Every structure is written in C-alpha cells, then in structure tokens.
Amino acid sequence: MFRPEQMAKVSVTGSRAVMPAVIETVHDLGLVHLSDYDGSWSGFENGDPIEGADATSEKLVTVRALESTLDVDPDEVDPQATLPDDWEDRLEALRVRVNDLDDERGETRDRLRQVDERIDRLEPFADLGIDLELLSGYESIDLVVGEGDVGEIETALDADDAIAAYETFVGGDVVAIAAAPASDGRPRAADTEGLIADALVSVEFSSYEVPEVAETPSAYLEELESEKADLEFEQAKIDDELAEIAAETGPFLRRIETELTTDVEQAEAPLRFATTERAFVAEGWIPAERYDAFESDLRDAVGDRVEIEQLEVAEFSDHGHDDHEVGEPDETDRSKAGDRDPQSPESAAEDEPERAKATDGGTTGAAAGSSGAVTMDENPPVVLDNVSPARPFEMLVQMVGQPRYSELDPTFLVFLTYPFAFGFMIGDMGYGLLYMAMGYGVWKAFDSDAGKALGTIGIWAGAFTLIFGYLYGEAFGTHLYNLSEAFTYLPLEGVLAKGLLITEWANFWILLAIVFGLVHLNLGLVMGFVNELDHGLKAAVYEKLSWILAMNGLFVWIFSTHLAGGKPDLLFGDGSPFYSMEAFELGFTGFPEIVGIAGLVVMVVGLVMVGIGEGIAGLAESPAYMFGHVLSYLRLTAVLLAKAGMAFAVNLLVWGAYEHDGSTVFNYPTYDVTHGGYEQVFPGLMHLGDGPLVSAIAIVGGVLVFVLGHVLVLVLGITAAGIQMLRLEYVEFFQKFYEGGGEEYEPFGRDGAPTAD
C-alpha cells in the first residue's frame, strides 16, 4: 500500500534466429518494461531493426496521416475486428482518393481566401458609391480613400497652406478626399504626390489602395459574393464527402494502425537489445510476483532455445540493487568457445548465449549464484500498489510526479485526508448530493483513466460533504431542525455546528484544524524519516527526527499551562472548547506546566539537531517549518466559515431574518412570527406581500437568487475547498518527505501499466 509492487530484473538470452519469436511473445505478454542497452559491454552493440521495419513505418505514417485528414478520433472510433486480405490495395486506393479530395479542398480554401481578401478590399469602396475609375489617374489633384474622423481630416486640410482646395466624399466609415495643390502656375504631378498624406500626418487615418476594376464596386462585389457562395458550397460538399469516407473507413484505418503499431514496435525492439552477429541479450523489469508466469509462457512459446533468468529483485531503497559491472567474457568461456567450430551454425547458437551471460562481475542480491549479468543498470520502474478505493487518488500524486521506487507512496494518506477535509469545509447535504452527481457525470462522460479518476474523486468528496452536512444538520445552508422538530430525533443529526453564530464552535474548529495539521505533518515527517533511512540512520535523525522533536515540542508547550498568562484562553482551562462544549465534553484543560517545560527542552534539542544536520539555513527556516506550516491548516476553518456565511447570506435574502432576544439572527424557509421574542429584520424576497403582482415578482426573484446563489457557492466550494486542501497536501505535507521523479512502468506491448491486484 505504501510501497509499489516489487520489481524483478529479468534477462532473456538466445540466438538471433529466435529473436523475432521472443519479441513477439514478450510483446503479447505485455509484462516487460524493456531496458535500453547503453553499449557499455565490449563486443556487443545495439541491434538493428528487423527487416521490413522501414516499409511498415511508412505505412503507419500513411495511415495516421489519413486519420488526421479524415479527423478520425481514436477515442471515438473502435478498430474493426479483422483486416481483409487485400487491405494494402484498399489502403492505397483510399490514400489516392483522400489525397485528391484533400488537394481539391486545399485549392478551394485558397480560392476562397483570395475572394475574401478581394471582398475586404472592395467593401469600403462599395459603401462610398463612387465608380473606381473616378478614384485614380489624375495628375492635377491628389486623391486618397481611407477611414478617419471627417472633422479632424477637414481641420487638418484647412490648416495646410500647400492645399489650395479640397473636397471630401463620405460613405459609411469611408472618406474620399480630393485636393488641389497651391501653385502659381499649372499644377504638376510632382506637386500633387503625397499632398494629402503630408497634411494628415497628425490625424489618425488609414488609407486604402484603389482596386483596378472596370465595373462599379457594387456590381463587382455582388459577383464576388456569388463566387464566395459557390466556393463555400463546393468546400462543404468536399467536407461532407470526406466525413462519409471517415465514417465508412474509420474502423478499417484504426485496425490497420493497431496492427502496424504492433509490427513497428516489434520490428524496432532490437534497437534496445545488446547483440552480436549471432546472439542477443534483452533485459527488463517485471513485477516480481509474475516472474514464474512470465518464464512459463515464454518457455511454452520458444522452448529451450533461450536462457531466461531473474537477475535481481530490487529492494525498496536507493541501494536495493547493486551497480553491476559490465565486463567481457572470461578466459574460461573463451576456451569453451574455442573448442567449437566458429563457422558452425550449431556452435554459434550455443556459443553466443554463453558469451552473453559470462562476465567478470556476476550478479548479487536475489539472483546471486546465477550466471547472468545486468548489462543495463537503471532504477526499477514504478507500479503503484494501492487498495481499489484509493487508486483514483494516484492521479493527484502523479500530478506532482510519479513516486520513486525507493520512497513511500502517499496515495493512501491522500485518499484518507483529501475528501475528509473537503467534506469538513463544505459540510452540506444538498451540496454533497450535487457534488456526487457531478462526479458521477464526469465519470460517465470520460473514458480516459484521468477522467474516471477525477469523477471518482468528486464522488468521494461529495460523500464526505454529505456526511458532514448530516452532522452539521444543514442542507443548502439551512438548519433542518429549524424546518421541523422531526429532524431532531435522527441519530447524530445536527450534533455539530459550523460556528457561524456560536463562537465556541468556531473556536473548536480553529483548535481542531491545528490538531489536524499536526497529525498530518507528523505523518509526513515519519514517512520522510523512513525514506531517509536509505541514506543511513544518522541522516534520518538529523533531517527528519529533528523536525519531529522541534515541532511537537513547541506545540506541547503551547498547549501547556506554562506561562499561561501570555496565551489565549481557548488553548486550555475551563474556557477551552477542548474542555467542554454544549454538545460534549473532552475534559482537556491543558498539559501540566512540567510537561510544557519538557516540551521546550525537546524543542531545543530538535533545533540543535536541525542546526547540526542542516546548518544555518535550516535554523532560519525553522519558524515557518515548525509553526507556520501548522497554522496554515487554519485555512480549513476559514473556508468552513466563509462558505457557511455565503450560503447563509443567500438564504437571508430569500427567506428573511429574525432577531431573537436581541442577539441571534435566524433564517427559515417557512417561519411563524407569532412566537414571543421574535422581531422581523428583513422579510425576504419570498415573503414580500405588497399585492399579488409584487409578491409574484418577489417569488420569481427569490427563486432566481436561491438557485444562482447556491450554484455560486457550489462552484466556489470546488475552487476554495478543493484547491486549498490540495495546496496543503502538496506544499505542507509532501514537502516533508516527497521527491517524486520515478519512472512510469511502460511494459512492451501494452499502452498502460496494470493495476495492482
């Protein structure tokens, strides 16, 4: 549960003649996380792809390109059962047909884009209503068309001494400006060039290039719109045809992709092996408990033509598997090889596997005494091993990173604490049922592992919200026992209160959040201590036990009667909610003074150990580490009160409020004001009674406020409670022990790792 599945390193050695059969069998089994040979073993090189790999890869590229063009979604289209014998001919015909249609679609899109560009250029001139031939070709005047503020344009033109006269023509947002230069003689083209642009240099003005069109702008624009409609119809026709092809051939393409992907994986597998001309060595990791089944299945497929060995069973520590030296075959094995005819195929088949196994290093650990050698040394991949209810919460852990093989997996503790804290903060039966429904909806809507996990987490969070809502006696922010006395007879219903109106409950939740934080952080530090034992007891003591002593010593003193005058009354004594509540009594009056002094001593000892282990940097961090991180858990109480207040405010607007005995405000969906001591503060939207019309409008408004208000609280509950607890898990809890960075278990021949049994 806190450790991943134990992994075993296995080796398969044999003649290259049986390598394809071994690859196919290992691929079908889907158990081995292959190791990559790093080329460090003298005389062995990485293998070459099996013959035909390039051609298979090219076909796979073709299939995936067709799926992309046809928009075939692998998550929505299932492969057909089998492939016909003529699938290659059908694939080629499909490729030609789809490529022709795609080329035609591309040409149509290009033409459509060009038409759109011409329309965009012409539309301003159509609004202007002037023939295009009248907007160019002048030598004696300067003529410009564009967009700008007409008033600012005319002011700038009036102020320019270089302009003798001008005229503006306005159509929509478009302005045409014709201006003649001031000249003693006949105007020349040189006098008119850039005349208007110089005058409008300080005015925001965008000029248009005048299109060269013989027709009127309106007539040509109609032709372009008609051409655009024809092109859009042609494009839609091509899209429909491609969609029909996708519906018809999608399962066919998915089956080909599945088959070719398998073929490519198998063909390229030798790239990860250590090989010679006649032999190969393949290594990888499998769950240790499945080794016997793996060996049996592989023997059934290839017989005694290969050597199968379990080289080691990795221990759960950074040093659990030795760094094996990779050596050359020793002299004994060379002499054995020399007794055979090196040109004999039989000799080659027997000799090379022996050479592949023989080293001067050997192996240790669980495989001690075997003749195998670990030629590819790396950390084991990780297969998390959690009970079924906790598995969806692996996603929350993996968002930070896959746990390393040598460290404890926090998934089970996240499963215990995350939905519990979420439910504590929201605590409402109505919201709980809705969260469960939302979680179930997500679970049904998504087929991916992440979608299923997210939906399940939502269901768990909703379930605890429902449980705490029952204990608080609330549904949509309303106390059920205020609706009917019948609710008061239910066991434990309403035994708790959120503390929005009763201060002692708010104080109780403050203290409980601190205690929860202490327990949570201590669990993290204990897990960190266990992880650090890999580096020795001394490292674990100075780096983790030191903080356990310092933090707990401090809070034992805080909750003690030592120097009681300088501490808040809610920590101990008769005024502490841990001593007595209206609903129950815990009887805690604080630790005795001598215990508090002992706590200070323990804290000092812990800080001295921190200084020895982590130096000045550790001591500088100590206030936040041993005090600030604990107080960070007060956000649980803050969210509890904030969400309760928001729901309460919505209900006050809808149902109204009464003051009782001058101190307490109540809100009821239905209420009776005839009881003595009740004074109406606000009648609520649902009870405004100034005529039928006003009442009807108020009721509709009340319903809208009730629905929208509680939807807002519901959504903010996800972002506030969900994110705040996630932050406590990641920042405060994980920081005490978690590093991550483990390697995912990706068995050859299977897309994902199996779940632990």
From TrEMBL:
<keyword id="KW-0812">Transmembrane</keyword>
<feature type="transmembrane region" description="Helical">
    <location>
        <begin position="693"/>
        <end position="718"/>
    </location>
</feature>
<comment type="function">
    <text>Component of the A-type ATP synthase that produces ATP from ADP in the presence of a proton gradient across the membrane.</text>
</comment>
<feature type="transmembrane region" description="Helical">
    <location>
        <begin position="508"/>
        <end position="533"/>
    </location>
</feature>
<feature type="transmembrane region" description="Helical">
    <location>
        <begin position="545"/>
        <end position="566"/>
    </location>
</feature>
<feature type="region of interest" description="Disordered">
    <location>
        <begin position="313"/>
        <end position="381"/>
    </location>
</feature>
<feature type="transmembrane region" description="Helical">
    <location>
        <begin position="454"/>
        <end position="473"/>
    </location>
</feature>
<keyword id="KW-0406">Ion transport</keyword>
<keyword id="KW-0813">Transport</keyword>
<dbReference type="InterPro" id="IPR002490">
    <property type="entry name" value="V-ATPase_116kDa_su"/>
</dbReference>
<feature type="compositionally biased region" description="Basic and acidic residues">
    <location>
        <begin position="316"/>
        <end position="343"/>
    </location>
</feature>
<dbReference type="Pfam" id="PF01496">
    <property type="entry name" value="V_ATPase_I"/>
</dbReference>
<keyword id="KW-0472">Membrane</keyword>
<feature type="transmembrane region" description="Helical">
    <location>
        <begin position="586"/>
        <end position="612"/>
    </location>
</feature>
<feature type="transmembrane region" description="Helical">
    <location>
        <begin position="633"/>
        <end position="658"/>
    </location>
</feature>
<keyword id="KW-0175">Coiled coil</keyword>
<dbReference type="GO" id="GO:0016020">
    <property type="term" value="C:membrane"/>
</dbReference>
<keyword id="KW-1133">Transmembrane helix</keyword>
<feature type="coiled-coil region">
    <location>
        <begin position="91"/>
        <end position="118"/>
    </location>
</feature>
<feature type="compositionally biased region" description="Low complexity">
    <location>
        <begin position="359"/>
        <end position="373"/>
    </location>
</feature>
<feature type="transmembrane region" description="Helical">
    <location>
        <begin position="412"/>
        <end position="434"/>
    </location>
</feature>
<comment type="similarity">
    <text>Belongs to the V-ATPase 116 kDa subunit family.</text>
</comment>
<dbReference type="GO" id="GO:0006811">
    <property type="term" value="P:monoatomic ion transport"/>
</dbReference>
<protein>
    <recommendedName>
        <fullName>A-type ATP synthase subunit I</fullName>
    </recommendedName>
</protein>
